[in-house]
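User: what does the whole thing look like in 3D?
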Amino acid sequence: MNDPLVIAGKAYSSRLLVGTGKYKDFAETRAAIDASGTEIVTVAIRRTNIGQNPGEPNLLDVLPPERFTILPNTAGCYTADDAVRTLRLARELLSTEARRHDLCKLEVLGDPSNLFPNMPETLKAAETLVKDGFDVMVYCADDPIQARMLEDIGCAAVMPLASLIGSGMGILNPWNLRLIIDNAKVPVIVDAGVGTASDAAIAMELGCDGVLMNTAIAAAGQPVLMAGAMKKAVEAGREAFRAGRMPRKFYSADPSSPAQGLIGS
Amino acid sequence: MIQVIVNGQPEALAPDLSVFGLLEARGLVGKRVAVERNGEIVPKARHAEVRLAEGDRLEIVVAVGGG
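Assistant: Here's the predicted 3D structure for the full assembly of 332 residues, as structure tokens:
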């Protein structure tokens, strides 16, 4: 595999992680996931509906864990305790006799109006989960100090927001993301805020190891088309990062064509 | 009958019902669900042997779409 993304010892060829919320139906979910080329999909953990038709398809029938790496999240949790309980249930749900499912996405929210992470609770939950053997990918503030703390605890990836969850406002503070990237030895994945393909490319050009998105695809006019655009943007941004961009030359032009040999000279 | 709370709802269930029995009654056997009883996970392998008791609080969860 050329230039893989390695998370908790497993290599992935796609650097795009995609959420499964907000699609019109399961058929659209699967079509968008396929078009995105992602190998890691996030899911939420919720109570079974009382009175739910047991014959209804289950998300995991549409996105089989044998085919995709399932990343259960703790969306909606506002305390470390609730997040840890949710992920223990997720591990039970996704483990098989052959393999325990330790990979998870921790997010402990602080305020329903902005969905900013509650970092003290996030750090507390991360400690408990890492001690309990989880491979924790953690949604966090774009704060290089706390990102380092999460890495020191043993998180498998740090996932700073680029702007508010579901806002589509793009990469608002590239400088902080660079500080986090430059400090980190674990993968840095932008989680939240991407609105369109150029945002994903910018994140990757900054040196992020991956991008996680949901609403940018699901709330696009044509989600499946946008999923394909995101796949290309992440690949293009990654290749541009690896290639190394030319230096910016402020206030000075430099022609690409030869200055000599012009006719009439 | 015993009184338990399932997913936040009070329910009267037959005494000596197992977790497996509870899932069976809901058509959830063989489905991808996980069960927590009084804050502790009930592993799949123990669904048949774990019996519900008066006052138990159960959570039965499933994976749904989310970011």
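In plain terms: Chain A has a mean pLDDT of 95. The interface with chain B takes residues 19-23, 29, 42-48, 50, 54-55, 58-61, 70, 72-73, 75, 85, 88-94, 165-166, 192, 212-215 of chain A (CB under 8 Å).
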